[in-house]
Design brief:
single chain, Alpha-D-Glucose-1,6-Bisphosphate, Chain A, domain 4, 26% helix, alpha+beta
């Protein structure tokens, strides 16, 4: 298992608004507009699925929110192996900065072939940080 931490992003919204927006996958409908690589996007309260092009390969991603602690964290797990047998769990953790802003960071545990993890670690980190940028754009623009 490999632990990968994302960059910390500052969101110009109250932690309560960010938590409620991100704890319901159906609120992320703007996410596919952030990248032309996201296809077949479907979301409901607890489930999210989409296809994404990564390094010339298509990956089908299926996610489920498995735990929520209001204003503290949201836990998301893959429900299907990705690209050669990877599975992962991700905790999005929130910290209140003020009444009108907060920070968010992701901590991702990835399981799979250790050799492939070493080869693709940088690409995984970049993809997770791009996800954080997309979440920031979506949250700052919508809530």
């Amino acid at each position: 298992m490999k632990q990968i931490d994302t960059k910390t992003i500052e969101l110009n919204k109250p932690v309560e608004a960010v938590f409620y927006a991100l704890s319901d996958f159906s609120n992320l409908r703007a996410l596919p507009q952030q990248s032309d690589k996201i296809k077949n996007f479907q979301s409901s309260y607890d489930n999210l699925s989409f296809s994404v092009e990564a390094n010339g390969m298509n990956a089908d991603i299926e996610l489920k929110i498995t735990d929520r602690k209001p204003f503290d964290y949201i836990t998301i797990m893959s429900t299907k192996e990705v690209l050669g047998g990877f599975s992962f769990a991700m905790n999005f953790m929130f910290s209140k900065l003020s009444e009108t802003s907060c920070t968010m960071q992701g901590k991702c545990s990835v399981e799979g072939n250790s050799m492939l993890l070493m080869m693709f670690k940088k690409q995984i980190e970049n993809a997770l940080n791009q996800l954080m940028d997309g979440i920031k754009k979506s949250v700052d623009g919508q809530i």
